[in-house]
Design a protein that fits this description.
This protein is of the alpha/beta class and about 425 residues long. The chain has 14 helices and 13 strands.
């Protein structure tokens, strides 16, 4: 068996060669990696150098630190993942990363979320992916690359044929960029998961939703799509549902934090009557109210047997609607995950969900409520379970892919990351 490369030793040497001081946090992570037995295997390891780790002293990674690290990792074939979230990387750091992506042939996962990369940095990384043939998952979440930066990623999607997951949420992208990305995804055959959360939209015409809908009519590879905070109203939902009637690949649709009402749910209901592929529907933080919940429950009870997870968190639903959903679960055995916190619980709701859990119809780890009794009355407490609780953060200890907190990973995983 060949001797394992000593990452820390290489790092110390690289710092000396480039005249850079050592970053103690990076040094600690590399020393820990040296002890990792997985290096001996074929799967590879992910280096977690996240700047928001509260359990150990963290000196956040700078552009100069990244230059040294990239020189160390360039030929380390066993490093297949790199988590650099919440550091202080700028466009200069993006330049080092772009060079690395063009030279490296083993990195499959790169997390750059919540750094300070702007438009020019986005251009460098996107252009590097024109040539890179190994990266499967890229997270740019929270870097303010803007509309221009997003356009470079749209161009990249026309050329790259390796990337499976791309996260451009909270990146301050605008209308022009979203339309360009939707157009690129019409032809792209490899991207399976796309996050377009929280763009900056100044129009009420919902042009971006219309273009996303046109894309979904033609795209046959997308499995997961996030459209959170798109100012989407009932008109937009109707366009999406029309398109999804012709789509047979999408399994996870995130429409959380929009302006969908009970009328929009009617279009979703008609879709669910016919759709045979959608497994996860996230309607959190809309306003479907009792009428919307009752309409959904009728469809789920009688017609749909494909949906596995539904989130209606914070939708102004009262007891009538919530009890209807619980009744739907008694006849629909496929619906296994339901999230209801943030609505108006009455005693009937508490009793209904308590009964579902006690009879075993609803597993305790498949919902975000837990019954408890006080003075003979049943109440519901909140549990830290959800479809994607660990989107912005991951626990510093324990497994990141905890299925209770990230149910969507267990239901509709699109890659190993």
């Amino acid at each position: 068996m060949s001797v394992r490369p000593d990452l820390h030793q290489y790092y110390v040497r690289a710092c000396q060669n480039l005249g850079q001081p050592e970053n103690p946090f990076i040094a600690d992570v590399l020393q820990e990696a040296n002890k990792n037995d997985k290096i001996r295997g074929t799967k590879g390891i992910t280096l977690k150098i996240a700047g928001n780790n509260h359990l150990v002293p963290v000196q956040r990674v700078t552009d100069d630190d990244l230059q040294v690290l990239a020189s160390v990792l360039c030929n380390m074939v066993f490093v297949t993942g790199l988590d650099l979230r919440c550091n202080v990387l700028t466009d200069a750091g993006a330049k080092h990363m772009a060079t690395f992506l063009q030279e490296n042939s083993t990195l499959r996962y790169l997390n750059l979320m919540f750094n300070d990369i702007g438009t020019s940095g986005a251009e460098l990384i996107a252009r590097a992916l024109h040539r890179n043939e190994t990266l499967v998952y890229l997270r740019m979440t929270g870097n303010k690359i803007g509309d221009k930066g997003g356009m470079f990623f749209a161009s990249m999607l026309q050329i790259n044929s390796t990337l499976e997951k791309l996260d451009l949420g909270d990146c301050d992208m605008g209308t022009q960029c979203l339309i360009a990305i939707a157009t690129a995804l019409t032809q792209n055959k490899t991207v399976k998961a796309m996050n377009l959360n929280r763009p900056l939209l100044y129009s009420q015409e919902e042009e971006t939703t219309v273009h996303v809908a046109l894309m979904l009519k033609n795209n046959s590879s997308l499995v997961e799509l996030h459209l959170c905070k798109h100012e989407m109203k009932n008109f937009g939902v109707e366009r999406l549902c029309e398109a999804l009637n012709e789509n047979s690949s999408l399994r996870y649709l995130d429409l959380s934090c929009n302006k969908i009402t009970r009328d929009g749910v009617k279009f979703l209901g008609e879709l669910l009557k016919r759709n045979q592929t959608l497994q996860i529907l996230d309607l959190s933080a809309n306003r479907i109210e009792d009428d919307g919940a009752i309409h959904l429950s009728e469809v789920l009870a009688v017609y749909n047997r494909t949906l596995q997870a539904l989130s209606v968190v914070s939708n102004d639903i009262s007891g009538k609607g919530l009890v209807a959903l619980s009744d739907a679960m008694k006849t629909n055995v496929e619906l296994s995950y339901i999230y209801i916190w943030g609505n108006k619980f009455d005693e009937a709701t508490c009793m209904a969900f308590s009964e579902l859990i006690q009879t075993g119809r609803l597993k305790p780890n498949c919902t975000d409520v837990e019954p408890y009794e006080v003075d003979g009355h049943i109440h519901l407490a909140e549990l830290s379970h959800g479809l994607k609780k660990h989107y912005y953060w991951t626990p510093s200890c324990g497994e990141v892919t905890d299925t209770d907190a990230n149910a969507s990973l267990a239901i509709a995983a699109v890659s190993e990351y």
